Hints:
Elements: H1 3-6, E1 32-34, E2 79-82, E3 88-96, H2 101-112, E4 117-120, H3 122-125, H4 129-137, E5 141-144, H5 157-175, E6 181-182, H6 191-199, E7 203-204, H7 219-229, E8 234-239, H8 246-261, E9 265-267
Parallel strand pairs: 3-4, 3-8, 3-9, 4-5, 6-7
Antiparallel strand pairs: 1-2
Amino acid sequence: MSLLGAAAGCRSPWSGDAPTGPEAAAGPQEVLVPAEGSPSPSASSPVPSPAPPSASGSASESSVQPVRKSLSEAESRPVYELDPAQRVVALTIDDGPDPKYTPAVLDLLQQHGIRATFFLIGENAVEHPALVREIADRGHHIANHTWTHPDLRHMPESAVRDELERTSDLLHRTTGRLTTWFRAPGGDWSPVSLKVAADLGLRNMGWSVDPRDWSRPGTPAIIDTILKEVRPGAIVLNHDGGGDRSQTVAALKTYLPTLIDSGYLFTAPPN
Length: 271
């Protein structure tokens, strides 16, 4: 059931954002669909300018800590798809930034006028701050994927909080923007990680299409899985970090224009 079906007048978490890609201006507004029960793995608006770089190369740090509004249990429930009544797709890219593959992905997205959501790992982001800023400057959404990519399910709250808060703080310092979305490594949330994410004002995003590109099944297999499984409202999972992602880059070159030609509009949360 969509949020519109669940509660009349309820605003989408992405309310006000517009799909991207060819003819995006005519596209509908998207509505996220939250997961029910326990989670299981399975053209855009103007972009605000980031804070100016400091002498160290990072975005200028304010003496005031970022203000995060904690979320309710309902708001923090993981979402796995957009409104299936709308022909939109959300592309999400995990595990970067990577100095070799992230620029290639960014160039492909720019070529097709697509905005995506990049779920960044803190220990990678701290090594490549210029690349983090480039992702944001190109209009993509920066999201939290923990600091070290651990399995959160059996970690104490203090350790989970450190993983999430440390990453959100780094991304804010680097880009000047608050991080508002989180994805648990492997899609493996726990009651503790959901609580911590809510405390930090982070919504949780899963996925509905997983070509398992991280396992390098071959470019044709990645393309085939995505084109067979994508549906209106799909959230697609790809990776630009964590290993050799040449197959993912090659697959993007084929399936992005194919989906666009099929009438899909790509969307991402507003920055």
